[in-house]
Amino acid sequence: MSLSDKKKGVTIIAAAAENNALGKDNKLIWHLSEDLKRFKKLTYGHAIIMGRKTFESMPMALPKRRNIIITRNKFYLAKGAEVCNSIEEALSIVKDDLQPFIIGGGEIYRQSMELVDRIELTRIHEEFNADTFFPNIPETKWKLISENRFLNSSTANLSYSYLTYIRKS
Ligand SMILES: NC(=O)c1ccc[n+]([C@@H]2O[C@H](COP(=O)([O-])OP(=O)(O)OC[C@H]3O[C@@H](n4cnc5c(N)ncnc54)[C@H](OP(=O)(O)O)[C@@H]3O)[C@@H](O)[C@H]2O)c1
Q1: Tens-digit pLDDT profile for residues 62-78
Q2: CB 49 within 8 A of CB 90
Q3: Residue 1 domain flag
Q4: Which numbered atom of ligand 1 lies nearest the CA of 131?
Q5: Is the beta carbon of 70 within 6 A of some atom in ligand 1?
């Protein structure tokens, strides 16, 4: 299916270091406020799908977005969120959203790479010690369509790039 400008399709959004580090001890490793603002801007008004551990790493469900939590626990309750028992079920309930986002964490990214149309990746140009990692993005399957590099963020003294990939047809 070709996606029009408006329908960008299911999108992974993530921030990963050069060694693909995503998180440690169920927390983010860095605090990059520019990236958090971008995350908010891109996901605002859309469905956000996440693993149970990522949900529990946040203080609460994110406002003005349809929060969907994936767990194998049939009795899990999440305040301000809907609960699903598979990634496929989560994707089916957001099918009317023009751009639902998969927001993590590592387990959910890994299992959804074959199911998504687009990746919005913030690449942090450092290596970090971590226990959760982003999967590789094979060049045979993904085309980089936009790249914007920023040197030394105002808040975290990190250099980073916003990278947009679309699936090769
Ligand atoms: N840098 C970033 O952009 C970013 C973004 C998000 C998260 N993170 C970080 O990533 C880490 C969390 O990631 P994680 O990999 O540990 O956990 P996760 O992907 O957030 O959640 C894993 C949980 O999701 C559920 N799950 C996974 N696959 C499933 C399936 N096929 N069907 C049903 N349920 C399934 C299971 O929940 P149950 O155990 O309840 O069954 C599993 O324990 C944290 O450190 C967080 O800060 C980083």
Answers
A1: 999 999 999 999 999 99
A2: yes
A3: no
A4: 45
A5: yes
**Does residue 81 lie in a domain region?**
yes
- Is the CB of residue 54 below 6 angstroms from any atom belonging to ligand 1? yes
Domain membership of residue 127 as a residue range:
11-167
The whole-angstrom separation of Cα 52 and Cα 50 is 7
Domain presence at residue 2:
no
**Structural domain tally of the chain?**
1
Instruction: Name the residue with the closest Cα to ligand 1, atom 48.
Output: 22
Element at 50 (helix H, strand E): strand 47-51
Check which CATH number belongs to the domain holding 156 and give it. 3.40.430.10
Q: Does the C-beta of 108 come closer than 6 Å to ligand 1?
A: yes
SS3 label, residue 147: strand
Each residue of 123-159: pLDDT tens digit?
A: 999 999 999 999 999 999 999 999 999 987 667 789 9
Ligand 1 centre distance from Cα of residue 52 (Å): 6
| pTM of the shown model | 0.96
Mean pLDDT of the chain: 95
Tokens of 17: 């270091």
